[in-house]
Sequence to fold (352 residues):
Amino acid sequence: MAVFACARCGAALTAAVSQIALPVHAHQTYGHELLPALMEPGTYAVDPEPSGPPWRLWSEIGVQEAEARGVFAPVGALPFGAPGAIVLAPGDTCGTVLIPERCDGYCMGLDGRDGPNLACANCGQAVATRIDDCSYWQAVRLAPDAVRRLPTADPARRTVTWEALAEERQGTPPVEPPGVWSPWWEAAVGSALAHLLVASAGAPVAVPDGLAANTFGRVLDALLPQGLPAKRVALAGPGLPAPDPALDIALVPQHPQTGRAWQPSGTAVAVPLAADVWMHLAFHNERSLVPVTGGTPEGVLRDDPLPMHPWRLFRPDSGVFLHTLARVPAVRQPWLRGIYDQVRAQPYARPF
Ligand SMILES: [Zn+2]
Fold:
């Protein structure tokens, strides 16, 4: 565990927190309402990319400079602030005050467009950016050069083993009340989809029936050519039988704490998927239970609660998809760049 403190005066700016992987929806914008905190209480993550102003337009950056910072396809603009921001839930921060002249955003909250909007309450140094405007997962991003990380005496949180994660089988349900697809699923599938396309090498891809087909299959069918032979995709990971040695692409879980992908045996190309979504796909039984004989018991009118069904077809998050794909060197291949350009031009056209 660690506490982050002001680099100038040493005042504590956070509770004791332990590091986990940056969540897959860290760069997602969703809907037009206030969203919950990005990070779980007691955790922090490091965003490896530069963030915050100055922002520069793509036309000012140039291909070489963009590639040097890991972006391989055109984007609207890129932030050129310091890399390595420390991301936490707002409730895990303390000892800061707002900088009123930097509190822009103002639909429902702050969006951090002016750079750090929180100062150390003790010495006045700008130390962090609070983001809580509509469409953004609420977060405080500590400026990496304005804070120091101080280890605490608390024992480090143990890294949960793959076996324990698989045994818990705690996945995130794909549909939320009152019947909308989970934004986590839209982000996780959007990110994995970018890597799935790379693994396909432009060939048709066959996805298992059921939820995987409803989430990945429809969009892969729309973006890739149809026909045979198709590359076969299947889930592989802890708690599942070893994958078929002839499998082409293995959809594997990405550890929520370390961010590392589970490694399959064999020659299949591993495509990482956020572990909570993977766990649901791997272990949730979609069959509804019905009495074998005799119908519904007396006094029971029907299922309660009713199983949730989504209002519309699943659409991966096109913003997360494009963000991920732009950072994969393979996007420079013409066929994949064609898909990137097509989705970027119409990010909400079907199948997104
Ligand atoms: Zn200070």
The mean pLDDT is 92. The helical segments are 58-61, 63-68, 162-168, 183-200, 211-223, 275-283, 318-326, 334-345. Residues 183-200 form the longest helix (18 residues). Residues 6, 8-9, 11, 120, 122-123, 125 surround zinc ion (CB under 6 Å).
